[in-house]
Design brief:
Layout (H helix, E strand, L loop, with lengths): L1 H21 L10 H31 L5 H25 L2 H25 L2 H33 L2 H29 L5 H29 L16 H8 L1 H31 L3 H25 L1 H30 L3 H25 L6 H32 L4 H36 L1
Helix pairs in contact: 2-5, 2-6, 2-7, 3-5, 3-13, 4-5, 4-7, 5-13, 6-10, 6-11, 6-12, 8-9, 8-13, 9-12, 9-13, 9-14, 10-12, 11-12, 11-14
Length: 442
């Protein structure tokens, strides 16, 4: 009894210390501190795992001649659709304390298989391994992050999401920086299979974090019973509910239009940079500079501003910020298709996405039924997102074939961005209405 009391006292002191530190940065309650820290470690581990592998994927893509993005996105979309069905089955049959670890360990096993393949294949076979790895990692990235946010919105409610999701997202940014740094520092002296093993181990850290989160949520969370029972329902619910619900349908439209405009900007960047920099070293330096600026700005906003913006402006206006910025950005490129205009647009858009749009759009799922938090969300975050890539990539190619240049294609993106802006304003107002109704019921 004494031993148990000592342990409980230790945990209380630890929680109190975490709260005293965190409250200086964000608006956090004492009972949320431990949940917040384990959520942070969870997404830190997931993004570290991904960013350890991302440079390896890019190098394999170059070595294997993976340069046709339209077909690459098609393969990725097919992978998303194939994986969503068995995942939905696990969600139906098992509680989250089981299906989330199974999902991550499945991906970890895949990573170890790639490490094994790279250790025993000849150069010609390695090219084919690289092609599969390129597509597989594009599936992995969206899937593991979607599962993370599904658990987070299953633990925290709408009010908590507005205060805390920005800080949680900062764990993703720091994880990305650390993962990239590991590969950049050790790629020349450590074999690629060893780096992949390190990436798989980070997923095991994520699994441990899931266990701690679920345990804490059962005693301190706003939905303490959610982790004990399977979600149930149909394995097709993610697809059918998305198309039957006007709210989820508009979330899907938001993600689709986000994907289309992101792909347009990606190709605009490639077009302008290839014309502005002839030397590959200069191009690489440009991309690295953009990434550095994006990560620095993102981290500052996530730590100090995201929660405040949501409280000051509400979900509707905060969600509309990225579409409005995108509209202005494409209009600027239409009038001034220069490298400087592109840099400013790219840095502001990407940092706004990571720091503001992503945490805000996760708040949208806090007001939907529990089955939709896992199934519909996973379908929208993966298959619908990659569908946006597909539409954007093929549309850009088609417009280019018709003779549209960078400025002309940016002009086409303006009305798409305007539709996205209207969609985001409607979604934000709908979320706030649903959250208010839930509060009244309580």
């Amino acid at each position: 009894m004494k031993k148990g009391g000592t342990r409980a006292t230790g945990e209380t002191h630890a929680s109190g210390f975490l709260y005293s530190v965190l409250k200086r940065v964000i608006d956090v309650r004492p009972e949320e501190a431990s949940l917040l820290v384990w959520s942070w470690f969870y997404i830190f581990a997931v993004l570290s795992s991904y960013y350890i592998m991302r440079p390896i994927r890019d190098q394999m893509g170059v070595a294997g001649g993976v340069n046709n993005l339209q077909w690459l996105f098609t393969g990725t979309l097919a992978g998303m659709l194939l994986l969503s069905i068995p995942f939905a089955y696990l969600v139906k049959k098992l509680p989250r304390t089981r299906f989330i670890p199974i999902s991550y360990r499945f991906f970890a096993a895949n990573i170890l298989l790639f490490a094994l393949a790279l250790g025993f294949t000849n150069p010609e076979q390695t090219i084919w391994v690289g092609r599969f790895f390129f597509i597989w990692l594009s599936v992995f990235n969206l899937f593991v992050v979607s599962i993370f946010w599904a658990l987070i919105v299953d633990i925290f409610n709408s009010e908590q999401g507005k205060r805390l999701f920005g800080f949680i997202a900062a764990g993703a940014t720091i994880g990305a920086i650390v993962g990239s740094g590991v590969t950049a520092s050790f790629a020349r002296v450590v074999p690629t299979p060893a780096l992949l093993i390190g990436s798989a181990l980070m997923l095991e850290v994520a699994v441990y974090s899931v266990g701690r989160l679920s345990k804490l949520a059962s005693s301190h969370g706003t939905r303490p019973t959610n982790g004990k029972n399977p979600v149930g329902g149909s394995i097709w619910a993610g697809i059918t509910h998305t198309f039957k619900s006007s709210y989820l349908g508009n979330v899907a439209i938001f993600i689709l239009l986000y994907g289309i405009t992101a792909t347009f900007l990606y190709f605009e960047q490639a077009s302008i940079v290839s014309g502005g920099f002839k030397d590959r070293g200069e191009q690489t330096s440009f991309f690295a500079t953009v990434d550095l600026l994006v990560n620095a700005l993102t981290l500052v906003v996530q730590l100090f501003l995201t929660g405040k913006l949501l409280r000051w402006f509400g979900v509707s206006l905060t969600l509309a910020f990225l579409p409005a910025l995108t509209l202005v950005g494409f209009a600027t490129i239409t009038l001034l298709p220069t490298i400087m205009a592109l840099v400013v647009f790219q840095v502001l858009r990407r940092s706004s996405d990571y720091a503001i749009a992503r945490p805000t759009r996760e708040v949208l799922y806090t007001v939907v039924p529990r089955e939709d938090r896992y199934k519909a969300k996973n379908f929208i975050d993966t298959a619908v997102y990659r569908s946006g890539d597909q539409v954007g990539a093929w549309a850009y190619a088609g417009l280019g074939a018709l003779g549209f240049g960078a400025a002309g294609i940016a002009l086409v993106a303006i009305p798409v961005s305007f539709i996205w802006l209207i969609n985001s304003l409607w979604l934000g107002r709908k979320q706030e209405s649903k959250a208010a109704k839930k509060t009244l019921k309580l």
